[in-house]
Write a structure and sequence with these properties.
The protein contains two helices and 15 strands. By secondary structure, it is mainly β. The strands form three sheets. The chain has a six-stranded antiparallel sheet. The chain has a five-stranded mixed sheet with strand order 3-2-1-5-4, with no helix packed on it. Bound molecules: zinc ion (ZN).
């Protein structure tokens, strides 16, 4: 039996934070590669490995090497949006044929499935972000950072809603659409905020699936850009 440390050529997949992996060779058996994930954190596929004398290579390239930027639109005819973390069961993506929610691809599929039923949804990790106004028709869903004197990196008077992320996501819907689907405003709590915005169509560009997205960045973390486009 031999153990070798070899460079990992992941072919764009995200299957290890390391650039080298250990290869265990036992006579008469397939080499065993330790320290890599069962599936790619971006595309959710199981990597097909080829172990040579001097490298471990994944054969097929990752189809989403740069990660996934998700773009959806939300129609807000009422001019009121309900901003919170979780809008199930009124909006529920059900159990369609999605990739694992632990992968970027699975999360992108859920974002699109939720948009199709009228909910702007996006994973934000354990971050408790807010919805901030950045212009007359533009907003961000973001987590500010605080300096030594506790001054936030985003002006507090531009914060329209705080999102308490029990489920590590934001969910935003047209308030009247939510009511028409059975949402009960008597049951709204302190974590639910109704925000008045100009009626129209809003585009959400969600960034958490991008390869270089850093939820621990020293600067303001922007999960989504939101803009009224019509
Ligand atoms: Zn991949």
């Amino acid at each position: 039996m031999t153990i070798q440390t070899l460079p990992l050529q992941a072919n764009g997949h995200l299957i290890s934070r390391k650039t080298e992996v250990e290869v265990l060779r036992i006579d008469g058996r397939e080499p065993f590669v330790s320290g890599i994930a069962y599936s790619c954190a971006i595309c959710d596929s199981r990597p097909k490995l080829q172990v040579t004398e001097d490298a471990v290579q994944v054969q097929d390239p990752c189809p989403y090497e740069a990660g996934i930027t998700t773009e959806i639109t939300l129609s807000v005819p009422s001019g009121k949006i309900l901003v919170t973390d979780d809008l199930r069961p009124v909006y529920d993506w059900g159990d369609g044929a999605f990739a694992s929610y632990n992968s970027v691809l699975g999360q992108a599929q859920v974002i699109e499935a939720m948009a199709a039923i009228g909910c702007a949804y996006g994973p934000v990790g354990n971050s408790c972000p807010g919805l901030y106004r950045t212009g007359p028709d533009s907003y961000i869903i973001a987590s500010p950072r605080y300096d030594e004197d506790d001054n936030p990196s985003l002006p507090e008077d531009t914060c329209l809603a705080n999102i308490c992320t029990d489920v590590w996501a934001y969910s935003i819907a047209d308030f009247e659409h939510w009511q028409a689907r059975g949402g009960d405003s008597a049951k709204l709590g302190w974590t639910d905020t109704v925000v008045t915005v100009p009626p129209g169509t809003y585009r959400f560009i969600h960034h958490s699936g991008e390869r270089d997205f850093d939820p621990y960045a020293a600067e303001t973390v922007i999960f989504a850009h939101v803009e009224r486009i019509a």
